[in-house]
Amino acid sequence: MECFAVDESGYTGFDLLNNDQPFQGASAVSISNEEAAALIKKHFPRLQADELKYSSLTRRPNYREPLFNLQRDVLANHKCVTCVANKRFLLILMFLDYATEPWYYERGCNFYQDGQNYSLASLLYYTAPTFLSEERFNGILDAFQRAVKEKSRDAIDKLVYRVGRSNWNAIGEAFGPIAKNSPECRKAIATPGVSTDAALVILQALINRMEVMSDGPYRVEHDRSTNLLQYHSLIQQLVEHKNDTQFTQSKIASITFPLKLSEVTQVDSKDSPAVQIVDVLVGAAIEATKVMTKQKEANYDPETLIRLYRDDQFIHYIPSLNFDEQKEFRKGSQGADVIDYFSKNFKP
Prior knowledge:
By secondary structure, this protein is an alpha/beta fold. About 50% of the residues lie in helices and about 15% in strands. The protein contains 16 helices and eight strands. It has helices at about 35-45, 55, 65-75, 85-100, 100-105, 115-130, 135-150, 155-165, 170-180, 185-190, 200-215, 225-240, 275-290, 300-305, 325-330, 335-345; strands at about 1-10, 25-30, 80-85, 220-225, 245-250, 255, 260-265, 315. The chain has a six-stranded mixed sheet, with helices on both faces. A hairpin with a 5-residue loop joins β5 and β6. The two termini are about 30 Å apart.
């Protein structure tokens, strides 16, 4: 059975405002341990460490070229996908999902039509710190993620208070419902299963691609790290979910249940060259994104690395003000149906 090795980077649970780790991502590669070991030996013939770890090797300038060449070989010759998300942008999208959209839904408006929620989230990402002040906007986002986590009346009241005290009228389409204490939005935030944990978003993106790339039943293998325990639980739920249904999410993304994914196992990364390869892919992608967004300095051109990826090998959740492109890409999206279905059937 075909096996995809999976690894993640940047996981911070429900807290998507972590300043030290602004991006979260994951990669999946269909490669055997024998093939992975041969690639590691080819590019790192003198490696003395127990395992290949991107975070360690990238600090050493003489390893920059072999790391690049390793990724070039993997991306050119193996089925693979990498997903990188701006966590602040994801949190804004979630705010719109639960603190805004339910008000529109009750009034018969399709808030997700042609991806307009992505356009509004991008607009908020770039303009809300100016209209509301960066401090107030950060306070609203923090209050929102805490309200979703705690689900108490007090926590939701604090969110309503923070929004109401801001200049929310400047972007009333987004902030009006919760500023006016919408009962529909309060109920959505308090719903069991609703979470700001981004693991399901990232994992869903990977699985969409793995389902397309695999010719038949396949399994997933990942490291035993604490962060990946959350991914493991979600993957197991997806494996066991046998409902017959399908959703369209964008021009290139859809998901059909039951999945071809049939098994998930945990391994020690030291014993899995395949998992070590994936660690390099996701680590390098996160670092390149930080450099490209000027959140980290580097003495190399990150665009050179990103150009190694084909369009169908790289998924990103990054704000964009190209609204026409967003509309075309997400035309026909069943965003509302997907959110409802996943919140009811899968528990973070």
